[in-house]
Amino acid sequence: MPTEFPRRKTLPLPPGKWAHVAATYSPDNGINVYVNGRREGNLILLGPVWFAEGADLVIGRSLDGLLDDLVIHNAELGPKEVLRHYEAGKSAADPALAP
Description:
Structural class: alpha+beta
C-alpha cells in the first residue's frame, strides 16, 4: 500500500533496467509518485504551490542514470492515464533495458 513519504525517500528503481517514473500534482491530491505504472507514495502539501518566476526547473538532480522522453502536462494525470503511459513506454524501451 502506498504511503506518505519524506522528500528524500528512495524509490524502488531496479539498477540497470528501464523504469517509468511519473509524478503528478494537484492542490487536492498533493504529489503522487508512480514507478512502472504503480503508485509508490504521495506527499501531502498544505496550501498552494508557487514557483519562482525566472527560476530553473531541476529534475533528477541526484539521479544516477539517464532521463529520456520527459513530458510535462498542463493537468494532473490520473492513475489509469499514468498506467497507459507506462504501458506505451515499456514497449518502446531498449530491449537491453527491458522491465
